[in-house]
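Batch manifest, entry 17 of 40.
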Amino acid sequence: MTETPAVQSSLRVSGASPWEEEFGYSRAVQAGDFVLVAGSTAFDNGVVLNEGDPYQQTLAAFGVAFKALARYGLGAADVIRTRMYITHVRDSEEVGRAHKKLFDAIRPVATMVVVEGLIDSRMMVEVELDAYRPGLATSLEGKP
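Output type: structure tokens
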């Protein structure tokens, strides 16, 4: 029986979340021609942005994710999948409206899930995204 080789990640990106160091994770990881981004919320410099506004928090959370993607030379047009975790079903329309504003022309596959809560109760949404660009791994070879 042959072993399947693990996908090698050649570039990891950290964000500004204090939980990355505390919990041992990266904001984004490149795996071949894919980049996976997770843990993106409307949290900046110790402050929860747009408290009480699910639409603006969604835009801010995706802004955090896009900033991580930019480190790989990728943008919204490269996104093939999004996930939105919301803390209240009543916010689904506003979160969906923000998603449509950002991705209407791109149309990635998407999932929205209602969760009991996020790490900070003022956060209303957390997002993840997966991006893909053919040849990305080759173009990033040798970069730190």
